[in-house]
Amino acid sequence: MRVIYNEQMAELAALLGEMAGLAGSAMERATQALLQADLHLAEQVISESDRIGEMNTLAEEKAFALLALQAPVAGDLRQVVSTIQIVADVNRMGALALHVAKVARRRHPNHALPEAVNGYFAEMGRVAVAMATAAKDVLETRDPERAAELSGDDDAMDDLHRHLFTLLMDREWKHGVAAAVDVTLLGRYYERFADHAVEIGRRVVFLVTGVLPADPDAEIEHI
Amino acid sequence: MRVIYNEQMAELAALLGEMAGLAGSAMERATQALLQADLHLAEQVISESDRIGEMNTLAEEKAFALLALQAPVAGDLRQVVSTIQIVADVNRMGALALHVAKVARRRHPNHALPEAVNGYFAEMGRVAVAMATAAKDVLETRDPERAAELSGDDDAMDDLHRHLFTLLMDREWKHGVAAAVDVTLLGRYYERFADHAVEIGRRVVFLVTGVLPADPDAEIEHI
Q1: Based on the structure, what is the number of domains in chain B?
Q2: pLDDT tens digit sequence for A141-154
Q3: Structural domain harbouring A29
């Protein structure tokens, strides 16, 4: 039983890692699509988004089968339950990358973003992709220290997001309401993407140590 | 074992129902706080928000204990796993009500909303609270037909949200960028609140029937 459990759990961990990698790759291309008003890239992200959803279903089924057939206990049980919770976060990261790609497509051939905020989104995209890569790494290696660091990585995203809102709320904003609405939603998508990566980190710490780190209250207060 | 399982599962279902009820009550008061710039109500929602978080932890612990001590199989196992997934949705509904209350507090003594959109938010609040009440009901009764109807209830929210965005994107919007940013975020909080209620409905259908309804792609496309 133990050998089978270990094999199946390793498969499941690899699947989750792969999902996080796909979410990161989707966010990377969605960001490029957004910055360059690249319809082809946006369409690519949108058409590939089903893949993460399918893997989501597969991961849930595998976790369920593990519980049903192996009846794990103690630390093993904690691993499987944490995995079920992590699946939802990774899936949501994929959905948020999809949202970004859809905004890029909706505004094409125009740019969704005023040029003044391109730098913010390039940087938020960079941080988001790095966090997805870290989440993938953490899911595969189960390194609790690296997992705990995801919360610190998110500080950079929160700073960017806060600055972006300062800019939006400034009387000098010259790009109109429609652009402000797009920027507001897009900013939120990146922030939530990073929050889910932090949440994956917390769950991996729990899965390894049995102690769930405090919720960093990752969602920043807007201005 | 079976008797103990049934008792513990009933306790867990009651706890989830109570959480959904609290989330609905929080959203009701947060909406009032928003519409009336009522600081006292906003503070109340904010100070009580920890309660849902505590119940979230308790529900996760109870579900874990059920798996560990009762080792349920087949339909019973499906119930517990679904419960773990539902806990995350109910918890998130509480967080979104908290977000609304925080916006009301942040803008006090001003109103966060331009008067022109009050009607939309009164109605979105009404739909959100009704959906939380339905989710509570569905968690307690496990009625799969009522659970499936939550997806239809969400159509009203999607319509409201779509109209709200048409208004925001209109050149005639006269309330400035800062108000548009608040309205955008608030609209998203209500929409996501409703999405989580739909998700609870889907999970309850699965929990009872073993078949997960198709994802209604509940998140609407903005204009």
Answers
A1: 1
A2: 999 999 999 999 99
A3: 2-209
**What contacts B6, CB < 8 A, 6 or more positions away?**
none
**Region A42-54: what's the mean pLDDT?**
95
C-alpha distances in angstroms, A146 versus A134, A135, A150, A216, B49?
8, 9, 7, 16, 30
Q: Is the Cβ–Cβ distance between B67 and B83 less than 8 Å?
A: no
Considering the domain boundaries, does residue A133 fall inside one?
yes
Probe site for chain B from A52, A184, A221 (most B CB atoms < 10 A)? A184
Residue B221's pLDDT is 53
For residue range A100-110, what is the model confidence (pLDDT) as tens digits? 999 999 999 99
Domain at A197, CATH number: 1.20.58.220
The nearest alpha carbon in chain B to A223 belongs to B106
Residue B145 distance to chain A (closest CA, Å): 23
CB contact under 8 A, A67 and B64: no
Residue A214's pLDDT is 84
Contact assignment for B180 to A185 by CB distance below 8 Å: no
Closest CA to B122 of B17, B217, B11, B28: B28
Q: Do B84 and A88 touch (CB under 8 A)?
A: no
Task: Decide if B61 is inside a domain.
Answer: yes
A222 is a domain residue: no
**How many angstroms separate the CA of residue B141 from the nearest CA in chain A?**
24
Chain A residues whose beta carbon lies within 8 Å of the beta carbon of residue B215: 53
> Per the domain annotation, does A215 fall within a domain?
no
Phi, psi of A111 (to 5 degrees): -85, 135
| pLDDT tens digits along A66-119 | 999 999 999 999 999 999 999 999 999 999 999 999 999 999 999 999 999 999
H or E element: which one contains A113?
A: none
